[in-house]
Amino acid sequence: MDIALLWAGILAFAILVYALLDGFDLGVGILFPFYRDDDQKKLVIHTIAPVWDGNETWLVLGGGGLFAVFPLAYATVLPALYAPVIAMLLALVFRGVSMEFREKTLRGRTFWNWGFWLGSLTAAFSQGLMLGAFIQGIDIVNRTYVGGWFDWLTPFSILCGFAVVAGYSVLGAGWLLMKTEGPVRTLSHRLLIPLSLVMLALIAIVSIWIPFLDVRLSERWFSWPSLLYLMPIPFLVALIAFKLLAAIRSGDNDTKPFAYTIALFIVTYVGFGITTYPYIVPHKITIWEAAAPDNSLSFLLFGTVVLIPIILIYTAHTYWVFRGKVSADSDGYH
Questions:
Q1: Averaged confidence pLDDT in the chain
Q2: Which among 222, 215, 177 is positioned nearest to 195, based on CA atoms?
């Protein structure tokens, strides 16, 4: 068994689940100012109140797993991304505080409403910055980061930041469409078409830009046999995009837009994985070079095969318990 590759798959799965689950509740926060009435804002908060903190479990698993399993990657990537990582973590904390405090105050509710929005937006944009900086490459010499403090801030990483914000916004609108009724559902449905078009346009621009970032990325996209694996990706993206827009226009099923957006995230994530494989730090450090000793990987795997099913079970149970529409008069936040 290639245990390093297995661990890379486990961490990739954890990051994907985090992007999907925390993505929609960050998207709800990004869209929060569009719901102007306080009763609408309360309903919006109630849709994510039972699940948002559990969603962030996967971020802890991904970050902690990277530190334990691929220490070389952790030690080289983190110094390159200190600023956006710190911004993301502070934003997530401030966002959680804002959600709690807005329910406990009347005079300061406007401040905490804007805090919830700003924390969600900053966290999402920071994740996009990190993704863009990671794809474009990190300056490493002799297993040490030798770049500058602001190497992560480039036109491409900023574009990726906007793309992640747009993607999370579509997930958030799809979630609210699925979970609410009345004015909140109507507004969420109205927002989905323009948000989806922006998201799809940004996905296209990022995809076209990637091969021009580095000659090795260009070779990966347009050489054999990787071209064989990458060719289906744009066709699947186009098909899912068509299905997504058709589902939004028809408006006959409140679940489909959210499901198609998740499918779109998964396909683009697979494309990203094919683009970077076998590197855990693109074009610098492979999965096997970054991995901890096999004995350590095996020891950690024993705990992980128990932990991940438990997390999946309680996550699934939570979503099952809080399934269905959330009513405006529900007392779902404590």
A1: 90
A2: 177
How many whole angstroms separate alpha carbon 164 and alpha carbon 248? Answer: 20
Q: Is the pLDDT at 223 greater than 60, yes or no?
A: yes
Bridge partners, residue 285, by sequence: 281
pLDDT tens for residues 249-269?
A: 988 899 999 999 999 999 999
Strands 285-286 and 279-281: antiparallel
**How far, in Å, CA of 24 to CA of 33, rounded?**
16
Pairing of strands 140-141, 279-281: unpaired
Q: How confident is the model at residue 334 (pLDDT cuts 50, 70, 90)?
A: very low
Type and span of the H or E element at 141: strand 140-141
Residue-wise pLDDT for 85-139, tens only, equals: 999 999 999 999 998 898 888 888 889 999 999 999 999 999 999 999 998 888 8
Q: Length of the chain, please?
A: 334
- In degrees and rounded to multiples of 5, residue 255 shows phi and psi of -90, -30
Quote the pLDDT of residue 225.
74
pTM: 0.93
Q: Write down the residue that tokens 């300056």 correspond to.
A: 139
CB 38 within 8 A of CB 109: yes
Distance CA 54, CA 194 (A): 30
**Domain ranges in the chain?**
3-321
* Sequence-ordered alpha helix ranges (H) in the chain: 3-30, 38-48, 52-55, 57-69, 71-80, 82-102, 109-136, 155-179, 182-209, 215-222, 226-230, 232-250, 256-276, 287-290, 294-321
The C-alpha atoms of residue 322 and residue 326 are separated, in whole angstroms, by 9
Question: pLDDT class for 330, splitting at 50, 70, 90?
Answer: low
pLDDT at 25: 92
Tell me the HSE value of 323 on the side-chain side, using a 13 A CA sphere: 7
Q: Token digits for 113?
A: 């409403």
Pick the CATH number of 3-321 from 3.40.1000, 3.90.1690, 1.20.1630, 2.20.25: 1.20.1630
Distance between start and end Cα atoms, the chain: 47
